[in-house]
């Protein structure tokens, strides 16, 4: 084996070792940070519908315990359940005269509609390690509104988006939190507006049984 061949073999061996270190050792050294995202306070508002029907708002465990993980060298775990819960309640209270919150879609006898929000997706656009690169966060919430007998009145998924730069090691976490809060605010605000204006909901109010307000 010539000297040049030995040098090439050494470089290949060195590259393989470095790859193995990156693949197996680096993830083990990654840190995990957990952040509880605080509720949105007063960000989801709308004119009260005093004559609207009584609604059961179903917040199941998947919704109330929802987490999103951002991988950026370290792992950032964002607990979004509290924020989603309060935002969904704000939407319901802005739309309906009376709201009962439960974890089951077995409605009380005096409920006219069942409202079920579900997290369809929380995603961040692909990004590199460049701190000034733009990253977009999207929050998608699916809403199902049905009568107590199970008939679906309205079903749709509403999105909210927010963007920022990736940021530095010291700022990227707070920037991610700001994007999550802003995107969530827009997603729930869009839901409130869309539900109120939806033709299906307007038709339901027009044909609502006697005793249900409009």
Give a concise summary:
The chain has 214 residues and is of the alpha/beta class. The protein is built from five helices and eight strands; from the N terminus they run αββαββαββββαα.
Question: Can you put this structure into words, describing what you see?
Answer:
The protein is an alpha/beta fold and 214 residues long. It has two domains: 1-30; 32-206, Lipoprotein like domain (Double Stranded RNA Binding Domain). Helix content is 37%, strand content 31%. The chain is built from five helices and eight strands. The protein has helices spanning 3-29, 61-64, 81-95, 172-197, 199-206; strands at residues 32-36, 54-58, 67-72, 74-79, 98-102, 113-124, 134-147, 152-165. A five-stranded mixed β-sheet has the order 5-2-6-7-8. A three-stranded mixed β-sheet has the order 1-4-3, with no helix packed on it. A hairpin with a 1-residue loop joins strand 3 (67-72) and strand 4 (74-79). Helix 3 (81-95) runs parallel beside helix 4 (172-197). The longest helix has 27 residues, at 3-29. It is elongated. The protein starts with a helix and ends in an 8-residue tail after the last helix.
